[in-house]
Amino acid sequence: MTRKEIVYETLKRISKDISFEDIEKGFFGFEAMEISDLTKIERANVSRELNNLVKEEKVIKILGRPVYFVDKEILEEITKKKFDEKCVFESFEELGTILNEEKYNEKDKDNDKIGQDPFKKIIGAKGSLELSIKQAKAAILYPPRGLHTLITGPTGVGKTTFAELMYKYALLNGRIKKNAELVIFNCSEYAENPQLILSQLFGHMKGAFTGADKDKAGLIEKADGGIILLDEIHRLSPEGQEMLFLLMDKNKYRRLGETESFRKANVLIIGATTEDIGSTLLRTFLRRIPVVIKLPSLYKRPITERFELIVQFFKDEVGNVKVPIKVYKNVMEALLLYDCQGNIGQLKADIQLLCARGFLEFKTFNKEEIEIDTPLLPDYIYSGLLDIERRRNEIIHLMRFSIEDFYLFTDYDKEKIVSIDNYKISDNLYREITEKYNDYLKNGYSLKEINEIISCEIERYLKNLLKKSNTEKGFPEKEELFKIVSPRIYNAAVMAVDAAEKKLNKKFNDNMVIGLTLHFGALIERLSEGKLNYSEEINQIVLNNPEEFKVARLMMKIVEEELGLSIPLEEVGFLTMFLTALSQGNNSNKRIGCIVLSHGNSTATSMAAVVNELLGTNFCKAVDMPLDARVQDVLEKTTQMVKAVDEGKGVILLVDMGSLTAFSEIITQKTGIETYSIEMVSTPLVLEVVRKCMLPEMTLKKLTKELDIICPYIGRNVIDNMVEELNTEELVIVTVCITGQGSAIKIANLVENNLPTIKDKKIELVPLNMNEVNDGIDKLKENSKKILAIVGSMNPKVEIPFISVDEIVLGKGLEKLNNIIFEEEFNRDNVKSHNYFSEEKIFVEDEENMYIEMLERVLVFLNPIKTYTIIKATFDYIVNKENIPIDDCLKVSYVVHCSCMIERIFLEESLYYKEIDILIEKEVELYNTIKKAMEIIEQSFSIYVPDTEIGYIIDLFNTHKYGMTQIG
């Protein structure tokens, strides 16, 4: 193929993708550069060949900057129009005008035809509204006089306009007379006065009620032969619904106060509501309305329809303002993706708001056209761009024919495509803006002042419009972060981090995006004020981290392009440092916790609330200390909050005075969390501290160093005494057992019954399941409990003194536990306490009696003598069979475990053992020996010992075998 043939075939191929809808939106062709990219032929050569094809009348050429080309044959096929010898047009406008002239002529002819379908003009007629339109047509055409209909859907979807289209369809198809009316009545306007609403609908006779001084016809009479739309029909009272029954069933009704005769009216009723009809309307009423049409909300409609709506609304504004409107692609993307809670109505109102703002700039700067760019977007609309990544393919496909980075809507876009909405904007709005602008200018206001004043009035105007149109939520609230930084900055940070993730092949925490957003926000302020200061360390970091430096340069380029800024090169060094810190896995993505503590009922809470509102966060926490509160209670509350807010970088306490100054040291001792106190707290101080705490590179050490300079710590002389006064803890002894909390309770009873010191010193005994011992100990510490010792069947291996059950039974353990208690007492009182513990040995000389006595305290319903005899026989069998040395600790553990096991099996509460099959396979010989021994227990107590219980016995012997510390 020749070069010209390649160029021509490529143009024909891409021209086939054009549709008539694309042409209606203003797309007519392709640039030479685009064809150059596809063919890999130099642009100059492509341009030369295209111009040759124009001369041959094969290609249409549209002049301008840039020049566009399209295949002539395909364009003629799409538009159904012959271009003859004219293949060059001065502009899109010229070509568009020629195409529209023929279209308008055809439209005028069609309008003369009876039966013209008004629904064809509606956006979504062949899409999301197709079923709704079919239902509407069926309701209108159903013989003999149509079917009463309900239209449902949320505010702003256009129920009223849809009813108007049904009325037009009925007119054009001869279902109602040409002079028949569409009467619209909003039931909510009279909802609080049922008598008045009935009077409005049905009319009344003179004297029917107080104030009825003459006969009056109602809306039913006015709508006779036509249609009545009852908007917000759910506000119609049950009495009002019942009065419509006779009219709907027999075309009869009476005026209010009329008793002798009936009146006749042939009226088709259409109701509209946002509510659930099943719960707001009478069933008998609903039975008389057979057709229910549900209109979809905007977010349920295809994005292509939303695009059409946006385009049409901008065309509408061109008709209102009589000035071309240029809308940049980013604006179109934001309008396509933002959360438009008020549906189509709000979408139109938001576009009107943008055009009004753009019109103000058009007047101020004497522009040739209204420009709608991202700076005009409210943040809640701009936030739609944050969702673009998720829907990028849809957006690209939707805008694939737009060569420029903007859409230009001009005066030739005159066709009104009917769209569904209830929102009406004053035709005089732009005239009012012009008049006010001129008035303020005459009165000596600056351009900046004029813009601010009129912008506020525009905002107020549109908000009132939304309120009148029943948009429930109005303008959506801005995201919390966007109160201190623009969504535009956040979007730039997201794009920069996304690029960094791809280049460094790693995933960063969301906090990095937030951190960079805040940093860029502060950077913009510093740039505007000329306040830039960079550390000398940055140069060294850049040299030592070349990979991060390359990525940082890419990130900075993205930020510059997105924000339209020129950023100093040193800032690249900062980003390098940021990336390096993250690569090394430090805590730069975490924050220092911040708590305000102050005397008074709400002083701390008020300061924290002010700072959180100013910074748009809930990061700052507060603890109030009423004057009648116990210091110990406030300390406990603060301790819990410190643990909740700590992210691994410590917590700073901002306190006012007194005992609160001692909290930091005490809490650090209790929790191990690094804390620091700053006194003389004030709102400005809290604001500065919270701002610094939110910086990802900030550390507690660096923060306290900076704060000590501006508010040196005072009052340290009172802390030592306060620490001693406050640092008192309740004493606890924990009991644990591998077989569950029930057994741990029995061990606790054993300890309490044999050691009177427990009750004397009010020491709490806390039984815990071995599986939950660590969490239980942590919880006790959180509640300011000091754990003196752990007594149990197996050592949980924590840094707390452990005493095994066998030591308790044999006597030595009680002595050890007693010494621990009195050592704690001595440390607290600094005096030697009286030794309540008898030096006599607790254990009984006779071993059998000792075990039986122990089991009497442990067992609930088994006979201790029988139980011990049987369990001892199994123990002897196992140790002899496996040649295990007999040990008192092992025997006590075994006896306690097996006795508790038997009672558990009776109660059907056998223990679960994870991966028991693996353990049995590993310890098959020991398992067979224990299994054989368990037959003695099974026969004696008529029970079955499951393998899961045997698993714990295997562990018991293995623990002893391998020399691990344990109870027996």
UniProtKB/TrEMBL annotation:
GO terms for molecular function: ATP binding; transferase activity. Residues 122-356 form the Sigma-54 factor interaction domain. Residues 591-731 form the PTS EIIA type-4 domain. Residues 484-589, 862-967 form the PRD domain. It holds the Pfam family EIIA-man. GO terms for cellular component: membrane. One of its GO terms (biological process) is regulation of DNA-templated transcription. SMART domains: AAA (SM00382). Keywords: ATP-binding, Nucleotide-binding, Transferase. This is Transcriptional regulatory protein LevR, contains PRD, AAA+ and EIIA domains. It comes from Sporanaerobacter acetigenes DSM 13106.
